[in-house]
Amino acid sequence: MNKYKSLSSRELVSMDKNVRIRMLNMLSGLRTAYLIGTCDIDKTSNLGLFNSVVHIGASPALLGFIMRPVHVRRDTYCNILETESFTLNAIHPDFLERAHKASSKYDAAVSEFDMVGLTEEWRQDTPSPFVLESRLKIGLGLQEILDIKSNDTKLIIGRIEHIFIEGENIIDADGHIRHEELDLIVVSGLEQYYSILPLERFRYKN
Ligand SMILES: Cc1cc2nc3c(=O)[nH]c(=O)nc-3n(C[C@H](O)[C@H](O)[C@H](O)COP(=O)(O)O)c2cc1C
Description:
- It is a single chain.
- It contains six helices and twelve strands.
- The chain is an alpha+beta fold.
- The protein has one domain: Electron Transport, Fmn-binding Protein, Chain A (Pnp Oxidase, Chain A, Roll).
- It starts with 8 loop residues before the first helix and ends in an 11-residue tail after the last strand.
- Flavin mononucleotide is lined by residues 33, 46, 48-52, 65-68, 74-76, 103, 105, 187, 190.
């Protein structure tokens, strides 16, 4: 076992707080980074950066993400409550730096689209704005909010109402999505971004 670095739960607690947070944020590994687009009832738009998007189920078609504790103002959360709608917009290398800036706090009255230099895209039937520059975007209606008592976070579940993928050849006839051709960005924790390469595909039957 000597080749392993070991860290007990007690050692975790005694670590420098920032080091612990960075390490634990990265421990669960790589996930797709999404910009979540929302707006309030007056259509003031908002953009936030999220790495916790997870598949909840296919029938009905649901996706969820984790929202930090809402003791402080969180525009994404307030807007979702107001409009019962949000959009997920994948990130690509050409606007990664601008997308990262959407993780900063901005005044509720200003549009984060303007602040970071991305373009709002409004589509019929979806109350929330999409990111024009994104090549994979999903419009969702609010389905359910679950309180996670352990740490006061929330699991926000949305039902997929519309999917937009740029290019005719990204979704194969069998439903397989060629993420690599969309040039998607994945992220570990809150700072380190990666691009992706496909390795193998094995069939799954159940
Ligand atoms: C890479 C990255 C991923 C993030 N993922 C999440 C997340 O999954 N959930 C969350 O509540 N905040 C997450 N954040 C923090 C939000 O981006 C930040 O709170 C932002 O201000 C939210 O936008 P809002 O204040 O307009 O709602 C993440 C930040 C970064 C840099």
